[in-house]
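Final report, Chapter 2: Outcomes

The project's central promise was a pipeline that accepts a single protein chain and returns its three-dimensional structure in a standardized token representation, suitable for archiving and comparison. That pipeline is now operational. To close this chapter, we reproduce one record exactly as it appears in the project archive, with the input sequence first and the structure output second.
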Amino acid sequence: MNKEKGFVTLIELLLGILLISIMVIFLIQLFISHSGVIGSQKAQISADVAARSALDEMGNKIREGKLVLPSVLISGNTYTTGLKTVVVQVPSIDSSGVAIPSSSDVVVFTNPLGTTNLLEIVSPDGSSSRPGINHILTNKVLNLNFTYNNADLSQVTTVDIDMSSFEAVSKSQKVFSDKISVTLRNK
């Protein structure tokens, strides 16, 4: 056979196309599998950030506490300190953020039974500049437990918070668990 310089045969051309097709298929599969891993990692980070943010908020407010209260009535609802709820008395603040000595606000963190919500409720004293709050810190709580260093709530100086949260990823859940110990500073 006579082959002129610079030309390729049909078989060489088909083999080249086949090799390029195999490489493209491999790269597409690699991309798809990595995008699944990246999605899973993003979900884990999202769960971590949501839980850490909620834990930080609870820790900061409880740290301000003077006293862990047995219960409080806010807007017709009674909140009782226990495994799923903590009620903390914190100093009221004036408009410059300075504590008002003879006045107290109440902060409640609760995970209502049968929900994945973590609620933060702040009930300020009339003389306080602290805003009243009733909102969901996160709606991805799997488990939340408060434990106290003394059975007598008036003697509690430390609150331990153990929390697990989740983020749904395709057919599974990514779970983040953490525990912090918070000491009441104004005890």
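Archive annotation: Residues 38-183 form one domain.
This record, like all others produced under the grant, will remain available to the consortium after the project formally closes.
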